[in-house]
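[step 3/7] inverse_fold.run input=structure_tokens len=356
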């Protein structure tokens, strides 16, 4: 029996194709939701729109500090593993749920498969970077989304026989749901026309926790919005840290988090996306939408090399220039970002459990 784990919004998108492929093949699984993201707008709507079954186990850890959240997930997931005794635990991405569930499993000698292995930004001040590195070094099976991830794992001494380049399951979700997302025409909710607005997302602590940094970003948005309307679905953590700085920008539409389909449709018809999200760098690359990432490094370099992504420093003038003059890249879709990553991935899983 497989144990598939989700916990936060990015996990749902990456894991849904895997969960559904296991189900399509009739392979037994239990689905665990740690509850790292727990409200309807950040969790329930994703299960519904992505067609995922209800979780078999809901841990309900909620929001707290990194250490407390990781510890709570670790203890609760250990109990799930002892109860169900899965043959393999499958985790995805780089959130606290990823690390904690992987650690609980390996302590019980249950092998771990890591979806989206090998991504590295080189910035160890990012909690996600630490989660990625530690999870990769615990995993028995490592699934990569781009060739450079394989190179990163090789440099870190991980046995190449454990690494499998299968493509990007997040893009499986995008390709499966894009038509439905566009039919919803979510831009009309904000009085906008396709390709005549920008989408904003910020959530990383380096961008939203420091008031001076947030004010720099807000100043840039304030200079952009007279030329290009901006829609900002605001992450609960971003709003909690903001002290109203985002809502105070005249003309920027700050709205509650959107469901997967509305957000995907909005991004797919944007003129530009301004973000610090890793997943959005990938989605915009496939959609051909210019992406301005306010970070000095990215763990997804293929989105810069092959895609539409452009890294910019935290300087108002640089952000404004990049957004008002977006580069219309003659992009190519990265290898194996074809919507069929999950079947390739599950093929590997079936061979692994057959050998055991």
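[step 3/7] decode complete -> sequence:
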């Amino acid at each position: 029996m497989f144990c598939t784990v989700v916990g936060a919004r990015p996990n749902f998108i990456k894991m849904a194709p895997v969960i559904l492929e296991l189900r399509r093949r009739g392979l037994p699984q239990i689905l665990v939701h740690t509850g790292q993201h727990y409200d309807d707008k950040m969790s329930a709507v994703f299960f519904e729109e992505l067609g995922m079954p209800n979780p078999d186990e809901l841990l309900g850890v909620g929001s707290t500090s990194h250490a407390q959240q990781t510890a709570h997930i670790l203890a609760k997931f250990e109990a799930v593993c002892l109860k169900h005794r899965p043959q393999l635990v499958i985790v995805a991405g780089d959130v606290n749920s990823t690390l904690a569930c992987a650690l609980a499993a390996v302590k019980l000698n249950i092998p771990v498969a890591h979806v989206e292995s090998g991504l590295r930004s080189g910035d160890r001040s990012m909690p996600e970077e630490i989660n990625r590195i530690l999870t990769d070094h615990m995993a028995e099976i490592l699934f990569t989304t781009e060739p450079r991830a394989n190179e990163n794992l090789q440099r870190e001494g991980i046995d190449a026989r454990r690494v499998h380049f299968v493509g990007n399951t997040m893009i499986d979700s995008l390709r499966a749901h894009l038509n439905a997302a566009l039919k919803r025409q979510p831009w009309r909710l904000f009085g906008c026309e396709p390709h005549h607005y920008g989408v904003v997302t910020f959530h990383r602590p380096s961008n939203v926790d420091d008031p001076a940094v947030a004010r720099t970003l807000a100043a840039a948005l304030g200079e952009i919005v007279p030329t290009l309307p901006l829609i900002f679905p605001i992450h609960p953590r971003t709003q909690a840290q903001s002290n109203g700085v985002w809502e105070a920008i005249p003309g920027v539409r700050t709205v509650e988090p959107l469901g997967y389909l509305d957000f995907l449709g909005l991004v797919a018809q944007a003129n530009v996306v301004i973000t610090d999200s890793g997943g959005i760098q990938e989605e915009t690359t496939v959609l051909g939408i210019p992406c301005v990432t306010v970070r000095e490094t990215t763990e997804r370099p293929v989105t810069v090399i092959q895609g539409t992504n452009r890294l910019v420093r935290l300087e108002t003038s640089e952000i404004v220039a990049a957004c008002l003059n977006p580069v219309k890249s003659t992009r190519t879709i990265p290898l194996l970002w074809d919507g069929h990553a999950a079947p390739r991935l599950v093929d590997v899983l079936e061979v692994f459990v057959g050998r055991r």
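[step 4/7] annotate
Residues 174 and 193 are 22 Å apart (CA to CA).
The chain is about 45% helix and 15% strand.
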